[in-house]
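Worked problem 6 (solution included).
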Amino acid sequence: MTIDLSLLETAATKWDEAAKKFEAVQKIYDSKVKSVGLDGSWTGQAQLVARPNMQVTGEQFTAAPKEARAIASVLRDAHSQFVELRGKVKSAVADAVKAGMKVSDAGIASYDYSQASASDANAARHDPELRNVEQSWTRYIEAAVRAVDDADQGVKLALKAAVADPNLVDAAVNGFNGKAEGDIEKVEAKEAKELATKLNSGDKLSDKEMAEFQRLFRDNEHNKAFSQTFLAGIGAKGTIELTNKFFDLAKGDDKKNFRALEKGLATTLASATKSPSDPFYKKWREDLKKAGIEKYDVDVVHDKIDMSKGHGQGARGYQSLVTLMKQGKGYSSRFLSDLTDDMIAAERKDKNIWDLYGEFSGKDDGWFANDPVDGALDLMSRDPKTATQYLDPKADGGNDRLKYLLRDRDWDLQNTTIWRGNIEVGSADASEADVRSGFGRALEAAATGNVPGTDHTLGYHTDAEARVMHNTIKILDDGRSGADIPAGLRTNLGHMLVDYTPETHEILTGTGPYMDKDGVWHDGTGGKDAHMSVPKESLTRIMRGVAEDGKAFGEMYDAERYYSAGTLSKTDFSNPNERAAAIEGASHVFGFYDGISSDIVRDKKNDAISWANHFQTAEFVITGGLQAGASALKGQPTGFITDAAYRILYAGVYDWKEDQIAQANAAAAQETEYHFTTGQKQVNHMVSGWAQENGHGINSGLSRHLVGSGQERYDSARTEALIYLD
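Solution. The predicted structure is:
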């Protein structure tokens, strides 16, 4: 930590000077010595003997300055790396100290009681998590120190390579290296290539080689020169073969080591493909198009079939590559898009290209991306901007990706067989338990602009996000009940509809700027002010399809409760017209919800209770509020859910989930058609709370007048919904 790193720069300067001196001597040698042996003035036996030696000596004079400059370059690179990494070590220690730790000379962090107040020190002594905190800081410092050591090993490797004699059969013993490489990362890439080639050839790595392979990936995880040099060296096919080796060898005692190599290779791939304009990128992509559709032996795939039955199967290269990519992060939008497009192009030519025997889902087998397109889409879901750009129908000058994935793609990728007597023959393909799981997450990310499962403010969408949502509804609407929406998409579509609660509310009320629109438009507030609108019959059918999943429907229902309460809280209670419009609007929307519930129960009479019980698992949490549609309050957004909205919603005790379950029980017990009434009860509950919020008692004349005032709109909406779903 105290060494004078400037000495590396000084040494580099000396090596540059040495290179110049070698070149000066070379000129003298060429003009005074070598020329005599080559200009024809010297002949005879002595000349014949001397000439080869002169040639070797001349080559050494040419190689010497190259080696010297390579060493200088390595030393300068080393200086730059060590200065940066030493700074990170000091910063890590400073961070730990700032957090109340003291750090020993060995880098061990422990709580510094001497710098803490008496109360803080006493609390720390009784904190069961203190030990974990101390260990966390120690690991943080260890990582910074290890990075220095990794870099040091890289410098050592590069220096040894720079001075190694590349030609061991010529007359120059321990000669100069005319091919010396001054880029540390390129030297390390060559070393990594040699280790990868050894593994791919079937040889086993020693413990030392295994540690070195991991260090090479770790030390260069974000270095483009290393990544591109290494991948170009082994090629796309070699990369896939290496990936498969990692998969097959990641067992038993070696599992941890090979998992580390998987992660390192995945990160290397991400670094190498960051810049689509690089010559490397184009060649790599073209090579991958060929290697990606070839078949390879992989244990996880091969073990799925019974060899006694005569089957045999291998994994396609793209399946292995996408499986590997799950271990990494930071892939560029362009690479993910190009990769997915190329895989889709391959399956358009052969829809059965990814088909395999066996199930590849669940805890034990779901790690393998047997559906590489779905796996790539799952990777996109981690970066919503990438997902939106990819699925936006107007992106790239217009595309049919969304339609293809929603309607046209063959998602049944599992080969099946049946027995006819003693003969086993192929049968119809089947889908797996996790079918469309990656696409569902990508679709949610694309339409909402948020990583699935993260907290975010609802509403606030860009044009592209709103387009994805609008077109998803339009493509999925089949003119029927919507119940045939793929099960694997229901949860994500439910989340999307929750995020678009302002739109769904306004569309279903049938008023304002949403009434006659079918597309994407802006409310003029600026920023993310895009909205989508679709015909209410289309929306109703999609909501019905999603409602097959009771939990998803419960989340949508709960979001609407908050939105309606927020709308009421922002409405002028003293204005009879506004008051009536708000109550009737909420009643209308909940009429649609109850119409959907009634249709579900009608179709699922035997499973109605089970369906409703899923409501208990539904959890909608306001994280940043809801933005209202432009029509809610004279064109102005309502902003965030206010405290008043919460008071309206929770003014009395009404458990809508329990009511839904109770009504489902009642429906299941009846032979005749049953209608839900939960929605109107919810509206009446909110209206009562709203009246109380504005100074009117629950038994006041106005309160009694307002409760139930939206019944007519509620009834008509419920009937309308059932007509759309008939």
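Discussion: Strands lie at 101-103, 109-111, 295-296, 315-316, 356-357, 414-415, 417-420, 423-426, 519-522, 530-533.
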